[in-house]
Amino acid sequence: METSTIVWIIVGIVVVIAIIAVVMFMNSRKRREAHVEAERKKAAELREDAQRTDVARSEREADAARAAAAAKQAEADALKARLESERLARESAAHQSDAQQLRTDVDERLQKADSVDPDVDTDRDGRSDTAQRDERDHAGGQHVADTTQRRDTDTGRRI
């Protein structure tokens, strides 16, 4: 083999090695760029996911705030209702007391009217016959209706 042939073979090998090196370098660069692009894409997806999570967190915080406000409103309504109930109970008790006082006044006036009225029989205490009969009825005694005299059941007066 001649020297020139050997030189051409070596030059050919070097050129092939250089071409392989350039192709490998280009592929590695493309792979690196693809890897960098994939990392960018992954980072963008993570940011979007974080944004969605942040929006969900904000919505949950708003829901929690609304629920807390509703709970406070319910407590306020319950307190208001309780106070209104207590007020109505006091008002009812006052009306009961007034009604009892009026009932007592009416009974006293009727007793006084019966004691003054000559048509109504009363005992020494000023009670009319109807009051005495009512008292006996409540005590379990029985009375026989007086058939000779008729009386008004509301007033106890003779008719």
Automatic annotation (TrEMBL):
Regions of compositional bias (Basic and acidic residues) in chain numbering: 42-64, 104-140, 148-159
Biological processes, Gene Ontology terms: cell division
Keywords: Cell cycle, Cell division, Membrane, Transmembrane, Transmembrane helix
Bias (Polar residues) ranges: 94-103
UniProt key word Transmembrane: yes
Region (Disordered): 42-69, 87-159
Transmembrane regions listed in the UniProt entry: 6-26
Name of this chain's protein: FtsZ-interacting cell division protein ZipA
Native organism taxonomy: Bacteria, Bacillati, Actinomycetota, Actinomycetes, Micrococcales
